[in-house]
TrEMBL record, chain A:
PANTHER family listed in its UniProt record: RBR FAMILY RING FINGER AND IBR DOMAIN-CONTAINING
Class of enzymatic activity (EC top level): transferase
Chain residue ranges for the region called Disordered: 1-22
Keywords, in A-Z order: Coiled coil, Metal-binding, Nucleus, Repeat, Transferase, Ubl conjugation pathway, Zinc, Zinc-finger
Cross-referenced SMART domains: IBR
Lineage: Eukaryota, Metazoa, Ecdysozoa, Arthropoda, Hexapoda
One annotated GO molecular function: ubiquitin protein ligase activity
Every RING-type domain range: 116-326
Chief subcellular location: nucleus
EC number per UniProt: 2.3.2.31
Pfam families: Ariadne, IBR, IBR_1, UBA_ARIH2_N, zf-C3HC4
Name of this chain's protein: RBR-type E3 ubiquitin transferase
Reactions that this protein is recorded to catalyse: [E2 ubiquitin-conjugating enzyme]-S-ubiquitinyl-L-cysteine + [acceptor protein]-L-lysine = [E2 ubiquitin-conjugating enzyme]-L-cysteine + [acceptor protein]-N(6)-ubiquitinyl-L-lysine
Organism encoding this protein: Papilio xuthus (Asian swallowtail butterfly)
A GO CC term assigned to this protein in UniProt: nucleus
Gene that this polypeptide is encoded by: LOC106123949
TrEMBL record, chain B:
SMART domains in UniProt: UBCc
Keyword Nucleotide-binding (UniProt): yes
Record keywords, A-Z: ATP-binding, Nucleotide-binding, Transferase, Ubl conjugation pathway
Domain of life of the source: Eukaryota
Domain UBC core: start-end pairs: 3-132
Protein family per UniProt: Belongs to the ubiquitin-conjugating enzyme family.
Protein name: Ubiquitin-conjugating enzyme E2 N
Tagged with keyword ATP-binding: yes
GO molecular function: ATP binding; transferase activity
Active site: 87 (glycyl thioester intermediate)
Amino acid sequence: MSAESDMEYSDNDGDDYDYYGGQDDCDMETVDRSKADPEYFVFSCLKVEEVEKLLNESIELLSNSLHITPSLAKVILHAYEWNAQEIINKYKENSNEVLMYSHVKPRVPSVQVYSSIKVCAICATSPPIHKYSALACGHYFCNECWTTHFEVQIMQGVSNNIQCMAQECEVLAPEDFVLSHVTNPTLRERYQQFMFKDHVKSHPELRFCPGPNCQWIYHAVAREGARRVECLGCELLTCFTCGAPHHAPTDCATIRKWLTKCADDSETANYISAHTKDCPKCQICIEKNGGCNHMQCGACRYDFCWVCLGDWKSHGSEYYECSRYKEDPNLINDNQHAQAREALKKYLHYYERWENHARSLKLEEQTLACLKTRINRKVMAGEGTWIDWQYLWDSARLLKRCRYTLQYTYPFAYYMEVGPRKELFEYQQAQLEAEIENLSWKVERAETTHRGDLENQMDIAEKRRTTLLKDFLEFNTTNASSSKV
Amino acid sequence: MAALPRRIIKETQRLMQEPVPGISAVPSETNARYFHVIVTGPEDSPFEGGLFKLELFLPEDYPMSAPKVRFITKIYHPNIDRLGRICLDILKDKWSPALQIRTVLLSIQALLIGAKPGRPTCKRRSRAVEGE
C-alpha cells in the first residue's frame, strides 16, 4: 500500500468523522441539553391549582401513613419543610418528639380539668360548659373568644402559626380547628389564601414568580448556585435558589452583596465622584460650594487651584493659567483617602457598566417590540411568511439573552480577586461584549444586514456566552474539578 | 362606643379592690379604656424612691391584642426610649390574651429592676448601662 492512498483514506475518514460528529452534536442537544446550555436547569412552571394538587398529595400521603387528620398533617409538614419521608421515619422512631417539635402537642400539658371550668379566662363570662374548647394542650377557652382570637390573627396575616391563647403556650391551631370557629366567609377565604402562600414559601421545591401580579409558581429540585427559571406568564428570569433576578455567572451571595451595595452606595458614590475632589496635600475629600477656583483646604490649610489641583502660589501673582500640563501624576500617596477614592473609582467602573447594560437591555426590549410589528407588517404585505422572518425575532431574543448575561458578569468581576483567573474572565468578558455590540448593531439594522451575516454573528455571540458560563458558573466549575479528581 | 366588655370591667374592679403593691392604675373619667398609671421605683434598683407616670390604653380588640403602654415621666433605661415607648416582649410578639393589665404592669415594674441590655429600644442608653 502506498503512502498516498493512506493519506486519502485518512482524509476521508476525517470528513466522515466531522459529518457524523456534527450529527451527534445535534442529537446531544435534544437528549442532554445540560451539555449545550451551561445554565440548563430542570424546572416546571405551575399554576396555583397544580401546586395545590402537589401539596395535597404530600398531605394525603402523611395523613394516611400516620393516621392523622389532613389539618394536622399540614401543621407537621410545614414544620418539617414538607419532607414527608423524613417525618414518617422520625414518627416511627419517636412520634411524641415529632408532634412536640411541630407544636401539635405541648411540651408541658395543662393541668386544667374540663369539668371544673366555670369562667372563661379571656372574657370573664361563664357560658355553658359545652361552649368551651381547647387544643391538644388542654387550655380551655370559650368558643366566642377563640373566634375573636382567630379573626384578629387572620386580619394580621397569620395563618399557619396561630398559637393557643394561653400564656407561653406554643401549640398551633390546625386548620380544621380554626375553620370550625371562624364563620365570616371573607376571613375564611383570606385564611386559606395566607395558608397557601405560607405553604409555598416553606416548601423548598416551590417558589413564587416574583413578577408583579404574577400567579405562576416554579417547581424544581433545590440545588446550590445560580439556577435559571423562566416564568411562562411574565417571562421574567429568576434564580430559583435565592429568588433574585437570574444572575449567572455571579453566585447568590455575591449578587445579594452587590445589589445591596448598589442600593446603598450608588447615589452617594455618584455624588462624591461628581462634586468632590481630594485635597492634593492631605487627600481629604472636598466639596466645592462657591464659584472661586482658589481653594483652601479646611483640614490642612493648603491653597490650591480647583481646576488643575496645583499650588495656588503659582497662580496668584502671575496670569491665571492652569491649562499647564500636569508634571507629576505620581503625587498620589497610598494613604487612606487615596485608597478610598481608588475603591470608589473601581466600584463606579463596574457600576456604570452594569447600569449601562441594564439600560441597553431596556432599549433593546423596545427594539424587540418594534421588530414584532415590523415583521407583522411584512407578512401582511406578502413579503414572505413568519417563518421567513423568524430569524430576526430569534436574533433579537438572543441579543437580549447575551446582554443579560453580560450585565451580570460585572458584579462577578467586581468581587473577583486579582489573578490569572480574573484576567481570563475579563478577557472572555471583553470578547463577549465586543460580539454583543456587533450583534446589537446588526440587529438594529436587520433589514440591510445579510441574513447569513446576522446568523453568523448570533452564533459567535452565543458561543462566547456559553464559553464564559461554562468556565465560570460556580457549580459547573466545581463539577468539572470534582470530575477531574 | 360599644358597651365595655365584661373582661375590662372585671379587671378594673379587681385593680381597684386589690391593687398591686407599688402600682396604681385608675381609669380615666371620660374613657374607661384609658388608664392613668403610677409605678413606684422598685427597691434596690436605680429607680428606687421615684414615681413614674405611665399611660395605658386598651385597644378595641383587647384582650386579643396587647394594651398600649408608654412612660410619661422621662426615664433613663435601656429598654425605654426618649418618648417613653417600652421594649417588652409581652407587649409585642409574646402577647397572649390570657395576660392582663395587672400582669403587664408587673412586668414593667420588673423591667425597672433588671434591665435587658441585649434588646434595647435605645442603643446609646444600653451601652451606657453595659459600661457601668
